[in-house]
Amino acid sequence: MSTLQNKIDFAVILRVKNANPNGDPLNGNRPRTDYEGRGEISDVCIKRKIRDRLMEAGKKIFVQSDDRKLDDATSLKDRAEKILGKDLGGKDIINKACAEWIDVRAFGQLFAFSGKKSKEEVADGDDASGKSVPIRGPVSIQHAFSIDTVSLTSTQITKSVNSEDTKNGKRGPDTMGWKHRVDNGIYVFYGSMNPQLAQKTKFSDDDANEIKHILPKLFENDASSARPEGSMEVLKVLWWEQKGSGKYSSAKVHRSLAVESNGTYALKNLEGLTPNEIDGF
Questions:
Q1: Is the pLDDT of residue 8 over 60?
Q2: 72-89 as b/e, with b when 16 or more CB fall inside 10 Å?
């Protein structure tokens, strides 16, 4: 199977309505915002959803979340050792990992190995951490930001049932908490696929098409208390493909898209480059 032949850039326009798209654990799980008050969704959060949708499509994923994993691996190290073995290193582990998992081929991965050095070597100041094998992936994802500042609503909630039995048999004290949401916002995130880096991980045109296929339905099967069904939706995916390394930089391609606060958008003309416009699922 040939590796990715053409440079690809893409943009995803999405709507958040009465949902917490990406809570910040350092801020009471309030929706993430930047210093200007615009809503933010981290690249890690977006990659998690891409991985989940790919896994639902039957693709093998290395970084599986605990609540969705499809194997009996207890950790990433356990999963790696079961598939890759314990004695692989360098190009061996890169080739085998990339052949096995699409998310490694796409996003890259750092495989770290514990050291096997003696106490004398460690005492002499040698590094006991072992070695790490980094894999640089061809697919990069940016953070998503809202077009305008977002309005956040915080609601106090009460749990009025006993979590545990009480000594006197009476109902325990109510538990107080908070739920936070973005009332309404249009967000955009951008991504790119590099054919030169794809040669190293064997990321193929078929792999790129798999990601293209799942982006319009990024939030399907992703409902939770913080993100009720239908509260987040992809409005449009724009997909630019340039021959070879491309005539235009990713920055210029991304700047050619202007999105309004109501979700409508306009495209600046780039000679010889027209995006494929795909409706959300």
A1: yes
A2: ebeeeeebbeebbeeebe
